[in-house]
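Below sits our specimen:

——
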Amino acid sequence: MEESRELNAVIDVIMLAGTILLKSGSEIHRVEDTMIRIAHSQGIVDCNVLAMPAAIFFSIENTNISRMKRVTSSSYNIEKVCDVNQISRQLVGAD
């Protein structure tokens, strides 16, 4: 049960990072790459991410775990993009 809660919390962070990046004007490939890097840093290796201007999808292979987040508005905010990138770097460097 605790492992499930922890996994859900990790996925929440992954989705939040992707959402902030997408809403802040980041490129699609950066959104996907950052989400995958965060997942890998937390031990989730077999994952899929699909980002589009209007939505983000995240799933883990061979499980019934998937998430989708609709993004209805966006604006350019390079400071938020930099903040998320810094946190991502810290997580990946913590291996």
